[in-house]
Amino acid sequence: MTTKSKKHGNVLLKMRDIWIEGFADEKWNRIIRGMDLTLHRGEVLGLIGESGAGKSTLGLAAMGFTQPGCRITQGSIDFDGIELTEISEGMLRSLWGTRMTYVAQSAAVSFNPAHRLIDQTTRSAIRARVMGEKQAKDDARELYSTLQLPDPDNIGDRYPHQVSGGQLQRCMTAMAMSPRPDLIIFDEPTTALDVTTQVEVLAAMRKIVDEFNTAAIYITHDLAVVAQMADNIKVMRYGREIEESATRKMLSHPEMEYTKSLWSVRSLSKEEEKGKDAILDICGVDAAYGANKVLHDINISVPRGKTVSLVGESGSGKSTTARVVTGLLPLTSGEVLFEGEALPPKLSDRSKEQKRRIQKIYQMADTAMNPRQTVGEIIGRPLEFYLGHTGRKQEARVIEYLEMIELDESFFDRLPSELSGGQKQRICIARALAANPDLIICDEVTSALDQIVQEGILKLLMRLQRELGITYIFITHDISTVRAISDEVVVMFEGQVVEQGLKSEIFSPPHPDYTQLLLSSVPEMDPDWLDNHMASRRSG
Amino acid sequence: MHPVVKTVLHRLALGVVTLFVVSVVIFTAVQLLPGDFGEAVLGQAATEETKAAFRRELGLDKPAVLRYFDWLGGVLTGDFGTSFSGRAASGVDRSREVADLIAPRLWNTLFLACYAAVIAVPLALIMGITTALWRNSIYDGVANASALTTISFPEFFVAYILILLLASLNPVFPSLANVDSSISFWDRVYTLALPALTLTLVIVAHMMRMTRAAIINLLASPYIQMARLSGAPPREVILKHALPNAWAPIATVIAFNLAYLVVGVVVVEVVFVYPGVGQLMVDAVTSRDIPVVQACAMIFAATYIMLNLIADIIGIVTNPRLLHPR
């Protein structure tokens, strides 16, 4: 029943010695450097690597497609006997949407907002005359039903903005399956989804690929996800292949150092400690955006010098809680106590000292920094504003902070655009540290980063806590990060606190229903996990 | 109530408010015009008594606020007042109702505007869509360059060139467009060919380039890449996937240009000696004929507001998020 046991047919796709270049910064840069790829009928191949590894570029090249500004300079792509690099765009188009289809990362922006879902689902099949209109629409409704979309007979009459992200992603899978292609490219299809939604979408995609024995290339940076989907895994870095082998073997015995390092990220851990006195108490807080009440009676206690993680799906009120604590969103009732003293709800009513002691780090380091200021100015600003350091003294302090975040003084005059994603986030950390705060709120600070970079940032945060005794409120939807760094955990759902406790308490049964669902939805590095999970869900 | 109806009503109400504010601005601005109408008509030699009597007849002796509300009340009931020129105090009462003065001129202006729009809007849309479809081709280059050329010249220059080419060197169309109400529809169309052509050349470039830009702007969207990857040929990508999402900016720029056709064509009117509202207003300003100036300004303001309102509404009803709420 699982993909792992099925027999694969003959070779469907053979890519040999592919070189692809992209035009950026006034020159052609190599994106793919001599990759080979072989895919059999009915096989699912996982393509995995960090961002910038060239996964998507290679996946699109498998369809003979290159993004605007890219070109295939060398190599052959043989799709079922057709050499894709030699045929015309018109010939390629006759394959696209019929024999090979594509599932994009973010269904929310990949569906045309102006058309109904069912029209978009069936358009390729109807255009290519694979089926008549009525037949295609009936078939689409059946696919919706197979993918367990609610109200499959009518959901297609809706517009993209009228259904949820997870439902859209399943609709897109239906769209890809509608013409019964030989090959589907899944390009990070679940990355934008919450874990609880991700499980359902994964199961639906697996089911449909199994059912029609379609070959697929599954692109992702998430190991646990690819373990559920793929028969074979290919690891990529800098446009080159690192290694490829069967999923089970790859998970248990990766050969190359780089692959091992990818695997090892999840081993980061920290002993939990119970805190003594609370530095911050959120007592019975309600908050609202306009008339829309989003926080209901939130009670959270944050012990001094410890890490409290807020977890939950998007829309559960994690970030809103942070906005209330910082005063960006004034609470409507309840109070926030900082060292036993109530903070004024509005930021503008708080004293400079109160502002200084609570700092925040954001998810998108890119947008949290002024692109025209140098690193020295960015870190120097809180030094001057809160502590009055100027001139030489400020410069010396900035360099101290640069060293503290494991960078050196050569970064002083750089602009944010000259930094990597991980370095940018480090600068944001230094900026928060420069105010010499007691509490730092980290809002999804590692979500936009690759696994290895994430590990570096998390280690840095943990070291700073040990050395400086800073308290963290750590907001994330990533359970493995929570396991790695928390002392206490707060689970949130729909603007309410489900439970708060020490990490060991929260992660060991018995759980409230929602915590159970959330924890069990996190994919594990076990190829059988999805089957077992879905089986236990059905029986439960 | 459907949210679209609600939004449209909301916009309508805003339009009315804007028009009210504009009426205040117009009235104030006209008050600020230098010089005195009495003196302008009666000459500097007129005695103080004559001037005072004249002012009394025109109601200019009343305070400005009172006059404003008199005027506003009139406008609201469709009465724009009586023209200042040809009043009794200047000898014989030959004055005319402002509405009677403006009506035939307005009809002329609207006719010419519609004439130009009927040619220009479809032409601009077709050129915009085709240049987006065959972007960076020779056709695209030629279309863009020629559109830019025509928009770069002042309109009177374009008008004179057209007269030179199509009325003087090759006498195809008449160079004067002095029509009156007796002329038949098709004769009117023939007589107005050159002014309409001039206006078309002046406004096509703007609309065409905006259409092209609005469509090309969307071509980088993920759903356009998705459409291409589902095998859609370029024609389908542009017409079915990009265009439906591009109507809002296109409608805005079309509304802007249509408003120009009603409001800003005085230069073209002068070149072709065409009796439109623009000329009337310029004459009225020169002779300090305040009721006519105010009425023309109100008509122009209302045109702008109405056309922009329509563009807004098009933007709303072509947005499925607003048309089909969750």
Describe the structure.
The complex is a heterodimer of chains A (540) and B (326). Chain A has 540 residues and is α/β, with parallel strands linked by helices. Chain A has two domains: 9-113 and 176-263, Rossmann fold (3-Layer(aba) Sandwich), CATH 3.40.50; 278-524, P-loop containing nucleotide triphosphate hydrolases (Rossmann fold), CATH 3.40.50. Chain A contains 20 helices and 20 strands. Chain A has helices spanning 55-61, 89-95, 107-110, 117-127, 133-146, 165-177, 195-212, 223-229, 247-252, 257-264, 318-326, 352-357, 375-387, 391-404, 421-434, 451-468, 479-485, 503-507, 513-520, 529-539, and strands spanning 11-24, 27-40, 44-48, 70-79, 82-83, 100-103, 183-187, 215-220, 232-237, 240-246, 278-289, 292-303, 307-311, 333-338, 341-342, 358-361, 439-443, 471-476, 488-493, 496-502. A six-stranded mixed β-sheet of chain A has the order 6-7-8-3-9-10, with helices on both faces. Chain A has a six-stranded mixed β-sheet with strand order 16-17-18-13-19-20, with helices on both faces. A four-stranded antiparallel β-sheet of chain A has the order 2-1-4-5, covered by helices on one side. In chain A, helix 16 (451-468) links the parallel strand 17 (439-443) and strand 18. In chain A, helix 4 (117-127) crosses helix 5 (133-146), helix 6 runs parallel beside helix 7 and helix 13 crosses helix 14 (391-404). The longest helix of chain A has 18 residues, at 195-212. Chain A starts with 10 loop residues before the first strand and ends with a helix. With 326 residues, chain B is mainly alpha-helical. Chain B folds into two domains: 3-96, no CATH class; 102-286, MetI-like (MetI-like fold), CATH 1.10.3720. Chain B is built from 16 helices and no strands. The longest helix of chain B has 36 residues, at 98-133. The mean pLDDT of chain B is 87. The chains are: A alpha/beta (540), B mainly alpha (326). Chain A binds chain B through residues 60, 63, 65, 67-68, 90, 93-98, 101-102, 104, 106, 109-115, 123-124, 127-128, 158-159, 161-162, 175, and chain B through 220-223, 225-233, 236, 240-241, 244-245, 318-321, 324, 326.
